[in-house]
Amino acid sequence: MEQNEESSHEEKKETSRWKAVGINLAVLVVYTLICKFTDGGVFLDAFFIAIHFTAAIITSIIVKRWEWVLSAFLVLAIGFSTCVSFLDMPNMH
Question: Which residues of 55-70 are buried (b: 16+ CB within 10 A; e: fewer)?
């Protein structure tokens, strides 16, 4: 019985760790879409990505969890590639 409870606790802990990554990626999608379909453009998106990356790195230092570092670098990589694609795509207005 105790082993089953420990296993359940470990699964919940693992799921909660991945929530940080998922929430960060969802936030990235939201402000990227807002920047794409408004007059903000690629420079505002790059500004948000820089702030998001910095905040995730600072959070990882404070809470000492590696999933925040993973989130930061995923935001940086996906955000950079999105900015590059914004520059290549014609305006969708």
Answer: ebbebbeeeeeebbeb
25 located within any domain: yes
Q: Is residue 93 part of a domain?
A: no
User: Cβ(39)–Cβ(27) under 8 Å?
Assistant: no
- Tell me the per-residue pLDDT of 21-53, one tens digit each, with 9 for 90 and over: 888 899 999 988 888 888 878 888 889 999 999
Residue-number span of the structural domain to which 68 is assigned: 2-88
Look at the chain and count its residues.
93
pLDDT digits (tens, 9 = 90+) for 53-79: 999 999 999 988 888 898 999 999 998
Instruction: Tell whether 82 is covered by a domain.
Output: yes
Number of domains in the chain: 1
- Burial (0-12, 13-18, 19+ Cβ within 10 Å), 90: exposed
- Amino acid in position 1: M
